[in-house]
Amino acid sequence: GHEGPALEAVAASLPTPALAHEADITDDASLERAAAVVRERLGPPYAVVANAGVAEAGPFATSDPADWRRVVDVNLTGSAATARTFLPDLFGTKGYYLQVASLASLAAAPMMSAYCASKAGAESFAHSLRAEVAHRGVDVGIGYLNWIDTAMIRDADRFPVMRELRAHLPWPARRTLTPEQAADRLATAVEQRSAAVYLPRWLRLAQAA
Predict the structure, then answer these.
(1) Domain range holding 10?
(2) How many CB atoms lie within 10 A of CB 90?
(3) What is the pLDDT of residues 138-162, one digit of tens each?
């Protein structure tokens, strides 16, 4: 969920200027309005994190084409639209763009074809973007995250097949981490302008395999 009131409360609690602004990353005009608000209230961004994501679970053969397309529109096309909107600012600030990917970028899972395809695409997009913008002083990082206790993961668990799939994974792979753990790791990646960040750390081994 968007959790707007909770985000506004967090923004209000921070010791530095902050804001919470809802935008639809599948709508270019909505993204441009959000970027304008950020520039007006906070100035040009030095870091942009593309973290929006949705998922649909179930067999591909019986999936709803509109639902499948929406996952790709948000996770892949929306990430590219986010980068396109904010790149002019990052060129000016020589900033950092962090694309949040997933374990699904490294290892596809059954019953999650749209999510896996979109996250693998988002990872490839970030690699391509990194090569294009490095000479402009912009760094691009990729975040590889496993199961995080969010509404998206809890929603996927409503499908019996997904609960069974997770239950039969090896313990490290089925462990669910907290949003606070994810936020801390991503914040460190932004501070260090990391090329890659893994949560949990053993995902680095999955990439090397």
Answers:
(1) 1-43
(2) 23
(3) 999 999 988 777 766 666 666 666 6
